[in-house]
Amino acid sequence: MSAGSQSSGSGRTSSTEEDFSVLLYDGACAFCAAAVQFILKHERPHTLRFSTRQSEFGKGVCERHPEVVGTDSLIWFDNSDPSRKERVLVRSDAVLRVAEYMGGPWRVLALGRIAPRFLRDTAYKWVALRRHRLRAKSPQGECPVPPPNVRARMLD
Fold first, then answer.
1. CATH of 18-142, one of 3.40.30, 3.90.1200, 2.60.120, 1.10.20
2. Measured between alpha carbons, how far is 39 from 21 in angstroms, rounded to an integer?
3. What would the mean pLDDT of 98-126 be, rounded to a whole number?
4. Average pLDDT of every residue of the chain
């Protein structure tokens, strides 16, 4: 299985661990932070959690899923199905999963799965390489502080 696809990890860390999905993003990237803000504005379910790759949670996911280390990508971390082990999606697979999650008209973007992964990931990598130029870095070099109504969904 390639790093551009999904994988299953070692599973849950405890039997009482809560089930959830998390979008991991680069906390030093203003483009990535803007993408999170876009998702928060347009999502329908309001259940997705967010964490930076640099956080303890993000580092833990990368330790359990070594295939994502070194990928310049959003990471969709899924722990929401008790019958499955942890799952991670990267690059275009992660973006398409976000579109599916957001619901409404955004779900139609998930039809992008009909395109071969190597083409989707090539487009993803093109944007990823230029993301810092597409949106200037934030003054603090970190993502903005989330509003109080979303702080509970942000993992540190």
1. 3.40.30
2. 14
3. 94
4. 82
